[in-house]
Description:
The structure holds 2 protein chains of 2 kinds. By secondary structure, chain A is mostly helical. Chain A is built from 4 helices and no strands. The longest helix of chain A has 15 residues, at about 35-50. Chain A starts with a helix and ends in a 7-residue tail after the last helix. In chain A, about 25% of the residues are buried. Chain B is of the alpha/beta class. Chain B folds into 2 domains: about 1-285, Rossmann fold (3-Layer(aba) Sandwich); about 290-390, ANL, C-terminal domain (GMP Synthetase, Chain A, domain 3). In chain B, helix 10 links the parallel strand 21 (about 325-330) and strand 22 (about 360). The model of chain B has no long low-confidence stretch (mean pLDDT about 90). The chains are: A mainly alpha, B alpha/beta. The interface of A and B includes residues 14, 18, 19 and 40 of A.
Amino acid sequence: xxxxxxxxxxxxxxxxxxxxxxxxxxxxxxxxxxxxxxxxxxxxxxxxxxxxxxxxxxxxxxxxxxxxxxxxxxxxxxxxx
Amino acid sequence: xxxxxxxxxxxxxxxxxxxxxxxxxxxxxxxxxxxxxxxxxxxxxxxxxxxxxxxxxxxxxxxxxxxxxxxxxxxxxxxxxxxxxxxxxxxxxxxxxxxxxxxxxxxxxxxxxxxxxxxxxxxxxxxxxxxxxxxxxxxxxxxxxxxxxxxxxxxxxxxxxxxxxxxxxxxxxxxxxxxxxxxxxxxxxxxxxxxxxxxxxxxxxxxxxxxxxxxxxxxxxxxxxxxxxxxxxxxxxxxxxxxxxxxxxxxxxxxxxxxxxxxxxxxxxxxxxxxxxxxxxxxxxxxxxxxxxxxxxxxxxxxxxxxxxxxxxxxxxxxxxxxxxxxxxxxxxxxxxxxxxxxxxxxxxxxxxxxxxxxxxxxxxxxxxxxxxxxxxxxxxxxxxxxxxxxxx
Lengths: 81, 393
C-alpha cells in the first residue's frame, strides 16, 4: 500500500471519519474527534504504520494532515502521487 | 431438603408440581451450575428453621456471575402470579411455551407458576438449543405466551426470518435490556402479540415494573411499578424497591441474609423517575464508571451500538495501558466491514472519544449464562475473539 493510502486509512480509523470526509488538506479544527486523545492515538498509529516515533513537539505541532506529511517526508517517506 | 434439577423437571414436569404442593421447602437448580453440589448443600443448610416449610429456593448467577441462593415464599409468589395475570392481560392465553430454563425466576414465576395457578398448558421446549423443535412449537402454538430475554432476538430473527407466528399472542421480555429498536422485526414474527417489557431482579422474585412495548419509545423506560410495589432512588440514583412479593432471604458468600419486607432493597440498577411517571434505567450500578473524568454508561452505549447493529453485542470492562477504566465491545457474529463502520460512526456521532471502546472484537456467538443473558466474564475470557478495531491509546 502506498504511503498516501496508508495515511488515509490510519486517519480515518483514528478519528472515525465518514466516507469521503478525508482530504489531504484536512485541518484539525475541521474534525471534532481530533481532540487531545486523538493526537495521542494518531501518534501511536504513526509509530505502528510508519515506524516513526513522534517527539512531543512534533505531535503537539500537528495541526493538519499536511503537517503529518511534512514530518514523515523529512524521515524519507514519499507521499507523492 | 428436596432438590430438583432442571433435567428432572424437563423429564417429568410433575415433580415440580409435587414439590410445590408438599409443605417442605425445596430447591430448583439449573442444568448448568456455576457451583458444585457441596456449595448448594452448605448454602441450603444455612436457611433458618422458619424457612424450612412453604418456601422454595432458586440458584441465580445474576449478570455478575456471583452465585446466590434466593429464597421465595410460595404464598407471595402465587399472589404475584395473580397480579401478573391481570397486568399482563393473560386471560386469553391458553398455553405458555418455555424457551428459558425454568429455574430462572422469570420463567419460573411468569410461566410455570402462572400456568399452575391459572390452569394453563405449559409446554417445555429445548429453546435455541434446537431451533427446528422451537419452530415446530411456534407453528403449533395457539393463543400462546412466550418469555424471552433481549439477547435472543438476533437469534430469533436469523433463524425465523420471513416467518410469522400468529398463534403467539403475548411476548414478554425481561432479564436485560429491552430490544425496543427490534420491535418492527418482532411484530413481523409475532403479528398478533402484545409485547411487554418486564423489569425486576432476583431479589424481587422477579418482577417490579411492567410496560407495553408501545407505551414508550426508548429501551430504558421500564414503565410503572406493579400494584403493591414501591420504587425509589437514593442520592446516587440507585434504584430501590419494596415489594410484598419479593424474596425473603438470600444466601451469598456463605451467609444467609434475611430481606425484611419493610426495608428498601437495591435492584442493582441506576434509574430516574420520568416526567410522565414511568421509570427510566440509567444503567447497572456496576456498569457506570468514569473514564478520563467522564461518566460512562454501558447501557447507553449499548443503545447506540444496537441502533445500527442487529446482532448480539456486549461490553466487558478492562483497564487501558495507562490504568484508566475502559470497556471493550464484543459483537456476534462478525460484522461486515460496512456494518462495523456504521457502528463506529454511530459511536462518533453520539459520544466523545472517552466513551468509545478500547477495542471492538467479534465472536461467532456470545457465550450465554443459563438464564440466556450474555456471560460477560466468559466473553472476556474467550481467546478466539477477532480484533476488528482498537483505539491506539
